[in-house]
Amino acid sequence: MNELISVLEVRYTRDYVLWLRFSDGVTGEVDLGGRLRGRVFEPLKDIGLFSQVHIDPEIQTIAWPNGADFAPESLYERCVRTVAA
Prior knowledge:
By secondary structure, the protein is α+β, with helices and mostly antiparallel strands. It has a single domain, classed as NE0471 N-terminal domain-like, CATH 3.30.2020.10. Helices cover 20% and strands 29% of the residues. The longest helix has 13 residues, at 72-84. The relative contact order is 0.23.
């Protein structure tokens, strides 16, 4: 991955799974259920809040109204591993 990757599109699909489209055209799903730990991420266990995911245009990744976000590189790696499996 030589260029900076950003998330261009996100869709809530089910449970803690999101469909993502990245700036290089890669698409796929990521399950974030196991990553919702800590003060910022614990509230996302509430599906009502989790499903409010959106793209933050400033940081070019997914974010939630409570300020939680994930690095696009981390999401990309998880997505590419899932597609390759």
